[in-house]
Amino acid sequence: MSSTIREAELGASASKVTPLPARAAANTPMPQDHRIARNPGMKLDLGFMESMRNVNRSALERRVASLTKRRSIKADNQAAWLLRAVACMDLTTLNSNDTEERVRRLCAKAINPFRRDIVEGLGIADEKIHPAAVCVYHPFVATAVEAVRGTGIHVAAVSTAFPHGLAPLSTRLQEIEASVKDGADEIDVVIPRGLVFGAKWRELYNEIVSMRAACGDAHLKVILGTGDLATLRNVMLASMVAMMAGADFIKTSTGKESVNATLPVGLAMVRAIRAYFEETGYLIGFKPAGGISTAKASLDWLVLMKEELGRPWLEPDLFRFGASSLLTDIERQLEHHLTGHYSANHRHAMA
Q1: How much is the average pLDDT of 243-263?
Q2: What is the architecture of the domain spanning 41-347?
């Protein structure tokens, strides 16, 4: 199989796709390498937020069930979608025992995500398919930047007292600035969830505006910690505040909560993205993170994005997976596609 990632294959298995609104045309070349027009944010509009406050959980769950049960992506189409999942991945290591050598191994895997026999079997040697970014703690940013230099792979740093976000704001902003200085071009920040519970929307908005300013040219991905927010209403409102404050991406989870990315939560967030686009004309990215470890799960998320937001959200400038073990399962599935047999995990080395 050659040229596996093609428009026809990425669209062949999803009928009744909701198209991107026509208003997007001026803002959306096929996004690559941070070429989407950045979200400048807007004034905090509590009236607009109020219009988004009612979220029907049962309706969202029914929609998610219909997406995952009636879609079947097989054979070459499935391989194409799985390769797309890899291209939209933030390959991540966020462990207390991380070392510089472990980060270098992670970067090496990002640069060469597949075994040579799989690359040759799929005919993708010229496609240069690799994860969009590697995501690390601040102390390892410089190591990662050096390891992926010249490859087109971004370096994302988790900042602002990840994963709880409870340090003083000045400390959190200094961490962002330090990561940018070390070369990170994406910053994943975490909000203090207590501001959501207290409906302190102005304070939350002001904090995120400050974080966006500290990022400079680096892209800002705002982690909501959805597993801690208790209700889909809180998720929707926190999503809107983050986008109004200038977020380039909104992200579900740190991966450290007891409940991480779920499809109903993701659906609420992507509908907030759609509403923000209809209000402002700016496209916001989405990143589910935590617990997405199987190829099947990645396909469910890709279908969700394509049906709810359209083809541009299958590009790494507008969609990312926060993942560590997902790449291993995708590589196993691709080998099965070629050989008809599943191999052991240890044959697909990670960091």
Answers
A1: 95
A2: Alpha-Beta Barrel (3.20)
SS3 helix, strand, coil % of the chain, rounded to 5?
Answer: 50, 10, 40
- Give the active site residues: 188, 251, 287
Instruction: Report the predicted TM-score, pTM, of the whole model to 2 decimal places.
Output: 0.90
CA atoms within 13 A on the CB side of 244: 23
Q: Which two tokens stand for residue 350?
A: 């990670």
Question: Residue 17: what pLDDT?
Answer: 33
d(CA 145, CA 203): 33
Long-range contacts of 70-76 (CB under 8 A, 24+ apart): 71/13, 71/14, 71/299, 71/303, 72/13, 73/13, 73/299, 73/303, 74/13, 75/337, 76/1, 76/4, 76/9
Asked if 222 contacts 269 with a C-beta cutoff of 8 angstroms, the reply is no
Residues 6+ apart with CB under 8 A from 205: 44, 241, 244, 245
Beta bridge partner(s), residue 321 = 89
Q: Where are the domains of the chain?
A: 41-347
Mean pLDDT of 212-231: 97
341 band by pLDDT with thresholds 50, 70 and 90: confident
